[in-house]
Amino acid sequence: MPAPLFTLRPTRHTLLALSLLAAGGCSQRSPDATPCQVRIHDPAEPVNRTVFAFNRTFDDYLLAPVARGYSALPEFMQAGAHNFAANFGEPKVFINDVLQGNGERSMTTVARFIVNTTLGVVGLVDVSGRMGLARHQADFGQTFGVWNIADGPIVELPLLGTHNTRDAFGRVLSFAVDPLGDSDTVDALGTAATVANVVDGRSEALPLTDALRQTPDYYAALRDANAQRRLQLVSEGKAGKLGQTEFDCTPQERP
């Protein structure tokens, strides 16, 4: 799935508005429920499609062309950008590993960050990966899912793409959490990591989105594919191990 179309530092009012939106759509799931019981709920589909049309225009005329140009760069340059962006995000991955109760994965994340930041030249080289410490994803939306918080209705956010309300709230919280502190150096590295993450993620998603564009309904296809990916990510968090999922779910749209 594509990375978010763009990353902005939201204002306090934006944070509050999106937090209320997400909180309103998230309710506690029963302890016996499984991710396979989560179905796509898109009651605001007409509005979401309008926002999606704006996002698609932005993507068609700016982000996707930049990503295609990036894909033509030498492989070592793409690998460096990918590794740097991923390494800068490791502290937030660690926070979510801890919140999910994944002790083994949290220790792996710490080791990866230390090794790659030092021996890997601020993360440009994935030295820890070569040592057998595999990278994994973890974010606040996944953490809420591990905690059995329901996904809630679909919301299409300007420039940020399709989310369920649980993940939208997780994205907002991620903006507010800054484990590396605030300094000119960190801000500069953070901006560079954000740009690298967006462009690299969009480049990686090009084969998938190019295929989904050929479907009769690109909006629904992309929404459903994203829901499938998030279901699997939550399942991975519950399992607590890389590459291991508890469920193999196919999202179904609610009537």
Q: Which spans of ≥5 residues are poorly predicted at pLDDT below 50? A: 1-35, 243-252
How would you spell out the order of helices and strands?
Answer: HHHHHHHEEHHH
* Assembly state (oligomeric): single chain
Shape: globular
Q: Count the helices. How many?
A: 10
Report the portion of residues in β strands.
under 5%
The average pLDDT score comes to: 83
Q: In whole angstroms, how far apart are the ends?
A: 25 Å
Cross-sheet strand order for the largest sheet: 1-2
Question: What's the total count of β strands?
Answer: 2
Helix fraction, binned, reads 55-70%
Structural class: mainly alpha
Give the radius of gyration: 18 Å
Major beta sheet summary: 2 strands, antiparallel
Question: How would you portray this structure in words?
Answer:
This protein is mainly alpha-helical. It contains ten helices and two strands; from the N terminus they run αααααααββααα. It has helices spanning 12-25, 45-71, 75-88, 90-99, 103-118, 127-130, 140-146, 165-176, 184-212, 218-239, and strands spanning 154-157, 161-164. Strands 1-2 form a two-stranded antiparallel sheet. α7 (140-146) crosses α8.
Secondary structure layout:
Blueprint: H1 12-25, H2 45-71, H3 75-88, H4 90-99, H5 103-118, H6 127-130, H7 140-146, E1 154-157, E2 161-164, H8 165-176, H9 184-212, H10 218-239
Antiparallel strand pairs: 1-2
